[in-house]
TrEMBL record:
<dbReference type="InterPro" id="IPR000477">
    <property type="entry name" value="RT_dom"/>
</dbReference>
<protein>
    <recommendedName>
        <fullName>Reverse transcriptase domain-containing protein</fullName>
    </recommendedName>
</protein>
<dbReference type="Pfam" id="PF00078">
    <property type="entry name" value="RVT_1"/>
</dbReference>
<feature type="domain" description="Reverse transcriptase">
    <location>
        <begin position="1"/>
        <end position="146"/>
    </location>
</feature>
<dbReference type="InterPro" id="IPR043502">
    <property type="entry name" value="DNA/RNA_pol_sf"/>
</dbReference>
Length: 146
């Protein structure tokens, strides 16, 4: 099963991200840096040479920032860990290893025994984490290949 969370970088919840950095014990210095970057952001738009009033930015990671993919992966890792550790989700076994999910940026590949049944379990179990990431609000493309 392939999953592409469109506009996922635009919708990352800052509070969730900062909480995950704290939970992963990445250090108060890093947490403070990210908190400083992702708190009280504002932007102005120039239209026909005129600058608009400030617009408050409340979610998402900065486009083009080298830190943005890392921050997204940090937030997503919580969800991926829950999937990997969940005994109700049966992955693909190769020798003695079981593979359930791999990801790169906002693309995920699930290696699961029964995609239809397991897909329902994924939906039930991880709905809350997807909402925290705000991926649930996005148009998510699922493609099933048998």
């Amino acid at each position: 099963v392939f999953l592409d969370a469109q506009k996922a970088f635009d919708n990352l919840n800052w509070q969730f991200l900062i909480q995950q950095i704290y939970n992963m014990n990445l250090g108060t210095k890093f947490e403070n840096i990210v908190t400083t970057i992702y708190t009280s952001q504002k932007a102005n738009i120039i239209i026909n040479g005129e600058c608009t009033k400030s617009i408050k930015i409340e979610k998402g990671v900065r486009q083009g920032c080298p830190l943005s993919p890392l921050l997204f992966i940090l937030a997503l890792e919580t969800l991926l860990t829950r999937i990997r550790r969940n005994p109700r989700i049966k992955g693909l076994k190769v020798k003695k290893e079981e593979y359930k999910v791999q990801s790169f940026a906002d693309n995920m590949v699930f290696f699961i025994e029964d995609p239809i049944e397991t897909g329902q379990k994924l939906n039930e179990i991880d709905q809350g984490k997807l909402q925290d990431l705000e991926l649930i609000e996005n148009e998510i493309n699922n493609k099933n290949f048998n």
